[in-house]
Fold this protein.
Amino acid sequence: HLVPRNGYAPLNSDFDSFYTRRLKTRMDECFSQPVTGVAGRTIMLLDRISPDYNHTQILTGTRTRALNISSYNYLGFAQARGGCADAVEEVIRRYGVSTCGARLEGGSSDLHTVTEALVANFVGMEDAMISSMGFATNSALIPALVGKGCLVISDELNHASIRFGTRLSGANVRMFKHNDMGSLEALLREVISQGQPKTHRPWKKILVIVEGLYSMEGTLANIPVILELKKKYKFYLFVDEAHSIGALGPHGRGVADYFNIPPRSIDILMGTFTKSFGAAGGYIAGTKSLIDRVRLRGHLGPYAEAMTPPVLTQVLASMASIMGVSPPLPPLDGGEGVVTTSGTYVHPGPAPASSLPNWLTLPYALASGTEGRTRLRRLAFNSRYLHNGLIKLGFITYGHPSSPIVPLLLFNPGKMNMFHRMMKDRKTPIIVVVVAYPATPLVTSRVRFCVSAAHTKEDVDVVLRACDEVGDVLDLKHGIGRG
Ligand code: PMP
């Protein structure tokens, strides 16, 4: 079926040929597991009765509750009741579910302004712009920062959205070895003629892009060393905090908090709300003049639907909970008004002004509430506990011990399906994510555990016991171990 017909190849030829022809195994079984309900500590799996399961099977098929160690629910804010969910429910009644417009076209509500101010304060920057999709925050907004004549220096394992954005920008792109500061410095030395950095730079701007915490590796960017290099070679620094914001640092404020450095020593902080905040969308934060320019020049302002009110509220409520402040919800606008029996329209008028703090002018005060502290401590404990437990059992893992992303190496992509199924078929079913090419090199196919503050120590013990048994069957324990 791969032979081009009528002079052209079938649309699905690339992916299809790799996974179904070369590996000769039904790889799709371990991907796209159908689920229902909240992606919390546990999750409800829908039985995939046949490969082409349909809506009737979804409604009538068997359901299995599994321990969920696969979702990005780092702080456990994915919940359907209580906490953030109550505030979200209230806002849907006031604002509905959609803005029905782009930010520059009627889609900028008070909720957007308040959220942007809170985000700027949380990450310690002057201003922030939010958008309805994390992927698009990189892919559509990096072109507003750099263009032709600029050079982007990118970690070789940067996320697809970064690679997409840098290519779209028209800037030249060079890559350095993953997290290898020697490789970054060698590249900087090569592209900047030393001794006369200001006069002999062939580039309008040089932007170095790294991730705070790498999503497939669990590695932490060496921000202190990158900042030293920044002083020496004078470049701009962009850090994607999709996985580190909310998850790292004693106050959950990401890499700056973790390394105890001033956030404004970094030029651009980008992040997403999909992970630690149990929401969706992304942000980009920097100086006020830069963010003003991105708002106008980036393609998201005029061309993309603004972040929706329920999602904004989830961001506000979860972030406020981490910071230990009450959710800064704007006051009621008085409702839509009513038409009386005599046909006159009565508008209730504006609500009284609120006494909300102006988050944009508040100092960056590192604080976290009791709730936030508890969640952060639990996440940090669970991350280390799983990581160390797997190493003790003799597995080869990647990543920093503080990382809630814990990759366990399978090496052979043929073992992905087996690992996934054996974990799922246990008495206490466990759902895991397995990743391989093209997200990782083929030979380092892996299981990627995502730990959550919602997990208990006993949950992690259940995962470790299961890995121990499955690891023996699949011959995965090639590490030195520390048992
Ligand atoms: N940046 C990084 C580093 C990511 O890992 C991801 C997605 N996991 C994104 C950006 C895109 O974010 P989103 O899924 O919120 O669109």
Observations:
- The radius of gyration is 24 Å.
- The chain has 15 helices and 16 strands.
